[in-house]
Amino acid sequence: MAIRLSHPLRHHLLINPNHHHTTKPLRVRKFSIKNEKSEPVEPHKMVMKVKQTLEKDYKNLPVGKNGRDDEEMILWFLKDRKFDIEESVSKLTKAIKWRQEFNVSELSEESVERMARTGKAYVHDCLDVNGMPVLVVVASKHFPNREDQVENEKLCVFLIEKALSRLPDGKEEILGIFDFRGFGTENSDFEFLRFLFDVFYYYYPKRLGQVLFVDTPFLFFPLWQLIKPLLRSYASLVRFCSADNVRKEYFTETTIPADFRD
């Protein structure tokens, strides 16, 4: 999936990587948290503050699921920003605007079908042993110089959305597997890796539980040295491992992805 930072992404990813209005009550346990200023906060009250701010200052933002009045989304960004109202509003508005401009809600199996047929990336049918949905990227099937950049962007975002839609109750993160077996210079794509991790950082924060780089060849490491400083905290989520590690540690015999079967 070659990703060029084009159209809406260029406005928000600058580094040199069904809109129905539903009012879903937010279930929040009665407890207090302390933010970075050591002030006790109540999550529901903080959500209401952000919601009111967005309604007052950002009336043009969409409402409904993943909109400015989506209380679950607001709470997620508050937790990401350690309950700092100003930072949460800033990051949340960028995410909502991006979703609107990128037409995330209009992505579907049909709209990404041609690129998905390449097999370069997919959401595995089974969860891993920790109950996380699994997004697999097959690097050897990715040819950045031959493919439509916009279509690759759409496939990338669609699969993130699909993986998140499969989160079981009580789970919040997904597992990303990058299969580097057969990887060659023609598959190398700095822009894609930067795009992917930036999308997770800005628009899907704290949704990656772990990232596996499987059987990475020597020629990948110069690329890794370029991308690693840009990954921020996500760099600590990356584990270099073997296909055997994937089979034995992350899946059972019945849930292992077909690409990793002996």
Automatic annotation (TrEMBL):
Domain of life: Eukaryota
PROSITE patterns: CRAL_TRIO
Residue span(s) of domain CRAL-TRIO: 109-262
Coiled-coil portions: none
Database matches in Gene3D superfamilies: CRAL-TRIO lipid binding domain
Stated name of the protein: CRAL-TRIO domain-containing protein
Organism encoding this protein: Papaver nudicaule
Upper classification of the organism: Eukaryota, Viridiplantae, Streptophyta, Embryophyta, Tracheophyta
